[in-house]
Design goal:
- The complex is a heterotrimer.
- By secondary structure, chain A is of the alpha+beta class.
- Helices cover 37% and strands 38% of the residues of chain A.
- In chain A, a hairpin with a 5-residue loop joins strand 3 and strand 4.
- The longest helix of chain A is centred in the middle third of the chain and has 25 residues.
- The radius of gyration of chain A is 17 Å and the shape is elongated.
- The two termini of chain A are 12 Å apart.
- In chain B, strand 3 and strand 4 form a beta hairpin.
- In chain B, helix 6 runs antiparallel to helix 7.
- Chain C has one domain: Translation Initiation Factor IF3.
- Chain C has three helices and four strands.
- In chain C, helix 1 packs across helix 2 and helix 1 packs parallel to helix 3.
- The radius of gyration of chain C is 19 Å and the shape is elongated.
- Chain C starts with a helix and ends with a strand.
- The chains are: A alpha+beta, B mainly alpha, C alpha+beta.
- Chains in contact: A-B, A-C, B-C.
- At the B-C interface, strand 1, helix 1 and helix 7 of B face helix 1, helix 2 and helix 3 of C.
Chain lengths: 104, 299, 149
Amino acid sequence: MIITNLETVPGKSITRHYGLVQGNTIRAKHVGRDLMAGLKNIFGGELKGYTELLSESRQEATDRMIQQAHSLGANAVLNVRYSTSSITQGAAELYAYGTAVTVE
Amino acid sequence: MGLPFRSDMKFVAKQIPEGINTSPDHPLKELLLLLTGASLLLAVVFIILMLLSDLLVRYIPEETERQWFSAARLSFLQQESPAEGMIAVEHDLARLVKQLNPPETDPARYSIRLIQSDTPNAFITPGGHIFVTTELLQLVNSENALSMVIAHEMAHQIHRHPIRSMGRGVVIAVALMMFTGVDGSEWVSDILANSIQLGLLAYSRDQEREADKTGLKLLTDYYGHASASSDFFAQISQHEKFSQSGLSEYLSTHPNTDERLLFLQQYESGEPGELIPLPDSITSFLDATAQAKSETATD
Amino acid sequence: MYELLIFLTLLILGYSFGQISERRHYRSIIEREKQTLWMPVMTLKTVPPQITRCHTQLVSGNVVISIDFFKKFVAGLRSLFGGRLQSYESLLDRARREAILRMKESALEIGAKVIINVRIETASISKSSSRNNGIGSVEVVAYGTALSV
């Protein structure tokens, strides 16, 4: 499965397209992580726990998008975009969407 | 640059199957799982905090506690012009404390005060300050009965209950702040706070039972018998019959009065001991208040 | 005590009505998706080769959906432990699909054949308006360029 935020796959051309595919996940961090982050807020620096959480979630959103593309019989998702929003306090929503196509 | 599409590119209209972006689990199942988890977590946190605060209190010597909560520091302990006869009553109350105090411990760990109030009550604050209300004096018929009330409060101090409760209060307040800061939904923290409250109440009922037991021991050590120890509760029970509903036992800081009555009456079941009448200072104080009341009534 | 009763009532009401409205919404979404399935929606910017001379117009669809009390409570509990907030997943899924459907429907009205360069934005609105921090409603807007021959 080719995932790209380009409009095309270089050297290949699109033969079929299937429309929009999307993947989302919404994750909450737990109390312990939040406490550590609170401490970190005093000293500054990277919040490793959050970085991990968000990248994990983004991966899951991507995987779900790929799953949708698979179910349509596509072999590439083009022009993929990510968006992150905080729906509720202490939780983040990761969303990925793109266009499912078959390239040859 | 060539076209990204083949000229005969076509659109395939296909329905995407459901359930990729949602989870199939039943919401009630999740609720059940989370509730169990949350109550377990809560219980663990609660127990740890309790042990922690008790541990902390153990390292605070009573000497230090008395310094922190000395009468000179706590403004509410300073009394403005006590009513006539109250000082004499306080003297006698202090004598009762001294009597009940076992000889090997320092009686200076307690101070006792009489306060004007219309509700029969006695309580103790950190630092060993015992308070008895004037209305309580109306409900006791003998020195033994009054001594039981005082011994109960003294027992609280022997077990360091006041400062332990306070320690718990502080720790729990801090812990709750932690939770509320994190939580998205305030309802959750409301429920947490309520269940902690219930836990605290159960704890304070245990304390009361413990204090009843130790208080009884102080009483029998001095008087040689436990007669009249239940008098005060018998009176209170009469009062309560009119004002309480069934649910209150669970929500009350004190064990059910009738339950305590039964507990104390077990100890009284032997041969009735000799009862000592109330000290003169108290009887005359009561007479004086009764007279004052009847005068205002006729006015 | 009263607080607990009110809470339980809200929970039960939230659960029953929430489930009913969610099921109804999904039914309507699936039905309408079938009807508009023929219309391609793409994030690509390039005009498909079949369309040579066309009229372009920006189309959009938006929706604000609120979560029910039951799900909000479950999500609150969940945030003690962390992990996937399952109760919000269906909310967002419904909101996105509804917004895309509305965009498609407004494209249909102007006789469009395809929508290209679609973007989807999500925002949580009505924060701090009520005692529960006002979480629980999201706005999704989908917009793109409709091409009509």
